[in-house]
Amino acid sequence: CSNEYYNLNKHPDSLIMSARLGEEWQERIETIEVNLKTYRIIQSRGYKNNDTPKHDEIVDLVTKNMNLIRRYNRVCT
Question: For 1-77, where are the alpha helices, taking DSSP H only?
């Protein structure tokens, strides 16, 4: 349950998502971390921890769909 980037044992209440672009969604542009207890975005960062040109759009999209994350988390726990 761990890798070089993220250790689930240290962060059991986090959901990690990847924002992607491209024809087949192969280009990862930002990684988003959501706290599953508070349902808030902890961080959303691109390459070298910088914001991307799509940062505000990504944060807005995740925030607007937090109810789906909440609903899915309740089903899976």
Answer: 55-64, 66-76
Residue type, 53: P
pTM: 0.79
Structural tokens at position 53: 């040109």
Helix-helix angle 55-64:66-76, to 10 degrees: 50
- Count of C-beta atoms within a 10 Å radius of residue 72: 11
Q: Which two tokens stand for residue 4?
A: 């070089």
**Which tokens sit at 40?**
């808030």
Q: Which residues pair with 31 in a beta bridge?
A: 18, 45
Q: What pLDDT digit, counting tens, does each position of 29-68 carry?
A: 999 999 999 999 999 999 999 999 999 999 999 999 999 9
